[in-house]
Amino acid sequence: MEQNNNSEATHRSARRPRVGIVLGGGGETGIAWQTGVLAALGNEAHLTPDAVDVVVGTSAGAIAGSYFSARLDLNQLVDRERTGKVATAPLPAGEGMSAIPTEIIAALASTEGTVEERGRIVGKLAMKAPTPISSADLVTYVGSMLAGPEWPELDFRPTSVNAETGQTVLWKRSDGVPLAAAVASSAAVPGFLPTVEINGHHYTDAPRTSFSSDLVAEKELDAIVYIGMPTPNLSNTVEEEALNKLEADGLRVVRITGGADSELLIREALDPRIRPQAVEMGLRDGSAAAPAVAGILRA
Is the pTM here over 0.90, yes or no? Predict the structure, then answer.
């Protein structure tokens, strides 16, 4: 019996750690910032798809997560971000947070009621809000940003919220939903972009319920790398409370949430003109976190 136990312990120590990446929201600047973070972690900590078991992305994180999961060259994407010649939201130049109706901004920032109740309120407002493009147009546009129409082999899960029920969903390949629709539903900032219709329901970028605990249990994760700035006016995507509890229970967690000068990226989250600056900040923040991420990959 002792020999068997030793053998099992040796097997556990020999396998690589099971790692998840959780990417939060952040609008236009968030896409660039997260791309920079992921590029730096790939270069300096060897955080690559081969070292990761699941990627969960919310809003901006769904787009950046799709790039990582599809094994795109993140250094090339960084170079594009630096030039400013990147795909941005399909809306007139200059549209930003001011384009979102004040009642939706207030609902997104509210802490009253449960997360699902707040999601239903935001969803109802989002379905009524006029937007300059249709749901189909948004899905087509997002599809043009992705590596292709097929889901990546890596377990990639864009998050969204059912606008009718307020329930959080983590889309996955086995759901049979087109990748472009799943990512678009995650990035559909309410009042700024239209809700996305999938299988008779509408989905939007509303406050999410916490999902880290279930994800860790399902995927038997040893560690999570959380990448996301606090963006309360876009969506409540911070998993801090759940991650704190998981960490106390033994999960290894690295949080990358932006430096002291990231206020600009949060305040001007929907301004694509900030993206060249955002990607440089992402490279810096990713480089600063690289030793900690490398540590969990070696553990």
Answer: yes
